[in-house]
Design goal:
- Strands 1, 2, 3, 7, 8, 9, 10 and 11 form an 8-stranded antiparallel sheet that branches.
- This protein is of the alpha+beta class and 325 residues long.
- It is built from 12 helices and 11 strands.
Length: 325
């Protein structure tokens, strides 16, 4: 039998508890994760868990993807640029603008390589299904991004059928933008839920990237994306989404969530944060984000709405999901 020394066995890193699930006064569950908060000068003000290990930012990478599309020459602005950086809710105004963008560039829904889906917003999904509609590529929350990617491929004469290949010129440019904004190398490339390449960076790198976008000089691709998102937050998310509420009600805020409970946020003075809930529990996102923003010195009323996550029992509120730090 071969013995293994204690020194040769890596000790598992146990993430701290970021949120508790409290029902009828009893803590019935916990959400662990990692979080980093940057001060205005870019230094680390608060670090919980391993904030240097690579994570997939999921849709929190979308501002970098949109900036790459601009760098490649596509002339997008306003609502169209916000939609290119969006995880939209699939509301009527989202779907209408995606259709307009496709038509403007001589494209159709069949050209999109994101999968057909229902509206991301639950209320909108019920209305959509009640009207007899079915899963559609335009309705998928990443359709604005995919429309912009296809349009810039046509502009540059790049192949459209392989625009989601990690070796495609557009995806290589996106990787470059991600590394520049994060200030670190991409350590892994995977495939996102929409089929696009997904670049892994650390939570610290993700917070740095959002800080970079809000502090970038005017007319740079990064600043243009940040400005469009902040001017048209309803196109980045939807009418019932925390990212929209935060960018609408906190002056100069840039906010973007990602699947598997990832969140990035920056203020115009350079304060920034990023976190990920280990188990991907989106229900913990709001309470953790609201608490982190308060620690960053934000006190706007919108935080009460963002942080509210009630638990029901028999259609009556009997508890909550609350931040635990």
């Amino acid at each position: 039998m071969t013995s293994t020394s204690a020194e040769s066995v890596a000790t598992p890193v146990i993430s701290p508890v970021l949120a508790e699930v409290v029902r009828s006064g009893f803590v019935e569950g916990r959400h662990r994760g990692s979080l980093v908060l940057l001060a205005a000068d870019g230094s680390v003000e608060l670090s919980m868990g391993d904030v240097t290990a690579p994570v997939f930012p999921r849709s929190a990478n979308k501002p970098m993807q949109a900036a790459a599309v601009l760098r490649a020459g596509l002339d997008l602005a306003g609502e169209r640029l916000a939609l290119a950086a969006a995880s939209h809710s699939g509301e009527v105004f989202h779907r209408d603008l995606v259709q307009k963008m496709l038509a403007e560039y001589g494209l159709t829904a069949a050209d999109l390589q994101c999968p057909p889906d229902l509206p991301l917003d639950a209320v909108e999904a019920e209305t959509y299904l009640a009207a007899g509609a079915v899963r559609d590529r335009v309705t998928m929350n990443c359709s604005g991004k995919h429309a912009a990617m296809l349009a810039v491929c046509d502009l540059n004469g790049w192949p459209a059928d392989s625009y989601l290949d990690p070796g495609h010129p557009l995806q290589q440019l996106i990787l470059q933008v991600v590394e520049e904004a994060a200030g670190e190398r991409v350590t892994a490339v995977g495939t996102d839920g929409c089929g696009a390449p997904l670049m892994a960076i650390s939570l610290t790198g993700l917070a740095r990237a959002f800080r970079h976008f809000v502090l970038a000089p005017e007319e740079t691709a990064e600043r243009r994306v940040a400005d469009a998102m902040r001017a048209h937050p309803e196109y980045v998310a939807g009418t019932r989404r925390p990212d929209t509420w935060l960018m609408r009600e906190i002056p100069g805020a840039l906010s973007k969530m990602g699947a598997e409970a990832v969140q990035a946020f920056a203020l115009p003075d350079g304060r920034a944060l990023a976190f990920k809930v280990d188990d991907g529990g989106l229900r913990a996102l709001g309470p953790v984000l609201a608490r982190a923003l308060r620690l960053a010195g934000v006190e706007e009323d919108v935080l009460a709405r963002v942080g509210r996550a009630p638990l029901l029992g028999g259609a009556v509120e009997v508890g909550e999901i609350r931040a635990a730090f």
